[in-house]
Design goal:
300 residues, TIM Barrel, binds flavin mononucleotide
Length: 300
């Protein structure tokens, strides 16, 4: 089954340009940026502008927007498209309290009327692909992924990613894949399945269980970008991929962000290695990128 379309899930603070490109080089399908706050982007916030940066080799690339105000979202989408985004994805899954308090992220799931206005406004603004990423619903009493998916399709949304946990479940419990299957059965647009895929075997199992067109992997790719190779990877190949990732971080991220990213990703790369529990605090205490790399490779 070579045709398995495996994608990297958007993860705030993680899936920036260097990590996305490393995953692409390992075989990941179409990429999505981490969530970008539409209002902050429109207001010209520097940090947000950094999130919207990408490398040309990443394309085709979707930029994911977080917001609730249709006009602000539309303006942000126009700017991202003018900057080269190939697709605009709307975040309807973020569970963070201060985000949902503003009606954004997963809060859009519990307000189909507001969601419909956002879909219509964004559809008019976006000239390329327009996609959404949803949850199973807000909570157990409002499992409305199918309703939202149908509504989105009728408003011209071109693909739907489903992370089937509800907002109340956050990231706990098993991801109920049957919700993905229900959305697949309800719409004609491609559905991307997501949730608890930790291996290529899991991805095949998700396609078999749900009929989804592609599979998105989030936490299962942390420290394991070679999961997208779909085959065994030697120790030497892993070392080359990690070195490439470090070089991309150094070359493309502002200095302070680069240090944080090196620490995070090298900690994930060391997971499961003998001595990794002792290495982690030392990695996080390091003061310079050179020190972080030295600590990591000395234990490799
Ligand atoms: C650290 C972290 C950050 C995340 N940030 C985003 C985000 O910015 N946008 C989004 O749509 N989902 C985000 N998610 C959710 C993931 O995309 C994905 O739906 C979820 O982790 C379930 O997939 P998994 O079991 O493969 O990890 C995030 C998840 C994690 C763990």
């Amino acid at each position: 089954m070579d045709s398995l379309d495996l994608r990297l899930a958007p993860m705030a603070g993680v899936t920036n340009a260097p990590f996305r490109l490393v995953c692409r080089e390992c075989g990941a399908g179409p990429l999505t940026s981490e969530e970008i706050d539409a209002r902050a982007l429109v207001l010209g916030n520097d940090k947000t502008a950094t999130l919207a940066r990408y490398l040309p080799e990443e394309r085709p690339l979707a930029m994911q927007l977080l917001g609730a105000d249709p006009d602000v979202l539309a303006e942000a989408a126009r700017r991202l498209e003018a900057g080269g985004a190939d697709a605009i994805d709307l975040n309807m899954g973020c569970p963070v309290p201060k985000i949902v308090a503003k009606g954004q992220g997963a809060a859009l799931m519990r307000d189909p009327l507001a969601a419909a206005v956002v879909f219509r406004t964004l559809r008019k603004a976006v000239s390329g692909r327009f996609t959404i990423k949803i949850r199973g619903g807000w909570d157990e009493r409002t499992l409305n992924a199918v309703e939202i998916a149908r509504l989105a399709e009728s408003e011209g949304v071109e693909a739907i990613t489903v992370h089937p946990r509800t907002r109340s479940q956050q990231f706990t419990g098993r991801a109920p894949w049957e919700v993905i299957a229900a959305v697949v059965a309800a719409v004609r647009v491609p559905v991307v399945g997501n949730g608890d895929v930790r291996s290529v075997d899991d991805a095949h199992a998700m396609v078999a269980a749900t009929g989804c067109a592609a599979v998105m992997i989030g936490r299962g790719a942390l420290g394991v970008p070679w999961i997208f190779r779909g085959a065994a990877v030697s120790r030497a190949e892993r070392a080359a991929i990690i070195a490439r990732h470090c070089a991309l971080i150094d070359a493309h991220l502002p200095e302070r962000l680069a240090l944080v990213q090196l620490k995070k990703h090298l900690a994930w790369y060391s997971t499961g290695r003998p001595g990794s529990a002792a290495l982690r605090p030392r990695l996080f205490a390091a003061a310079t990128p050179a020190e972080v790399r030295e600590l990591f490779w000395s234990g490799w």
